[in-house]
Structure formats: structure tokens, C-alpha cells
Amino acid sequence: MAVFRSILFNVLAFLLTLVMGVGAFPVRWFAHGLALPYAKLWSRLVLRLFQAICGVEVRITGQEHLATNGPLLIASQHQSAFDTLIWMLLVPAPSYVMKGELRRIPLLGPMLILTGMMPIERADGARALRILLRETDTAVQKGKQIIIFPEGTRTAPGEHVPLKPGIAAMATHTRLPVVPVATNSGRFWGRNAFFKRSGVLHVAIGAPIGPANRKVLLPQIEKEWRALEKEFS
């Protein structure tokens, strides 16, 4: 049954993405203001397919820590493609820090730019950091909620990797608090995994960490992640 569900979900999600990717051309050409609502709709439909077909219950705790329509820094664990979808629905004006190569994906890439995402070429070193801070300033001025995955890549549940310093630079630069988020999404929708599993998928949102210097913030984020993981371990 799990195999059949996975095949059905992957096929339907691909077809939905293809149809909505083609359907996005009028938005890209004539209605830029509809880009974010259109992307939110796509995310909502994909996640509904995931939950309904794969038998996944998404349980979110701590949403009260997102009670703002203004700028925010969100430092989330990253285990799955799920993590890149759910934030489209949890905050009003999401802006993801993402790998620069994603903007070159046919159909999807141009929409990412129109929706206000922040593509960063990490191989550019110091220049990438300058661009990140410049893009951060723009997002903050527009009142966006910035989502960054400090691990830098998708990791397996329970896997710990050194955090990238970008979030610390952003927090120091903006003096905004950082909201830590833990998840177990990789148990149900793994990295590059064709097969999906049923169960209760948790997204645990922690209390904001006040502005801190770079040396202190990264260990604080990891500490909060470990505490949040206890909610679903």
C-alpha cells in the first residue's frame, strides 16, 4: 500500500506542478502581484495531496511565536522538500533563502524570483554574504518573514551538521529575533526519497531568540532545536 500511495502522490504532484507551471505564464507576464498567492496555492495543493494520499498528519506547535505580520527571521531544520512548502502557508509573506541554482529550473525558477525569494550563490564566498545581507535588508523593509535553513542542505532525522554562519550575520545585521524550528519531516518524505511514509509529521516552533552575537547565536539555535525535538521524539 505504501508503494502504491507513493507512486500515486509522486505522479499527481508532478502533473500538478507541470500544469500550474504552465499556468503561471500569464502571472509572470501580466500579473506579478499574483505570484505569491499562486505559489501559496500550489504549495497548499501539493501538501493536501501528500497528507491525503500518503496518510500523513501534520501537527504544528508553537504557532503563537509567529504572531506578527512584520519582519522575522526563522531558522528551520531542513530534512525534506516538505520544509520548503509548509512555510508558504504558515506566514503571510515568506521569503526563503535558497540556493542560487534553483532560479534556473524551468517554469519554477522565474516564479521563485517573482515571489520574492532570496537566491544566493554560496560558492561566491564573501560576495554571497554581501548579497545575502542586501537581500535581507530589502525583505525586512517589505515586512517579509525570512526562512533560512542553517544546516545548508537537507539532513536525515537525528543528523547533526555544523550550522552555516549566514543566519548569525543576518541576525546581527538586522537585530531581529530568530525563531528556531525543529521537524521530523524526513521520516515521512526523505531527502530525494521516492517513497513516502505515513504517520504524524511534527513542526515544532520555538520561542524567539533575542538578538545575539554570532558566536553565541548558532549554539543557541542548536540548543533550542534539541529541546524542541523532545516534543516528538
Descriptive account of the structure:
The protein is an alpha/beta fold and 233 residues long. The chain has one domain: Glycerol-3-phosphate (1)-acyltransferase, CATH 3.40.1130.10. 45% of the residues lie in helices and 16% in strands. The chain contains eight helices and seven strands. A seven-stranded mixed β-sheet has the order 1-7-6-2-5-3-4, sandwiched between helices. Helix 3 packs across helix 4 and helix 6 (126-141) packs across helix 7 (166-174).
- The CATH homologous superfamily name equals Glycerol-3-phosphate (1)-acyltransferase
Measured between the Cα atoms of the first and last residue, the distance is 26 Å
- By DSSP (H or I, 4+ residues per run), the number of helices equals 8
Provide the gyration radius in Å.
17 Å
Mean pLDDT across all amino acids: 90
Uncertain runs: none
Shape: globular
Q: Tell me the series of helices and strands, N- to C-terminal.
A: HHHEEHEHEHEHEEH
CATH architectural arrangement:
3-Layer(aba) Sandwich
Strand content: 15-25%
| Overall structural domain count | 1
CATH class term: Alpha Beta
Strand order of the largest sheet: 1-7-6-2-5-3-4
Q: The CATH topology is what?
A: Glycerol-3-phosphate (1)-acyltransferase
Q: Give a short account of the largest sheet.
A: 7 strands, mixed
Task: Kindly summarize this structure in a few lines.
This protein is of the alpha/beta class and 233 residues long.
Provide tags for this entry:
7 strands; alpha/beta; 7-stranded mixed sheet; Glycerol-3-phosphate (1)-acyltransferase; 8 helices
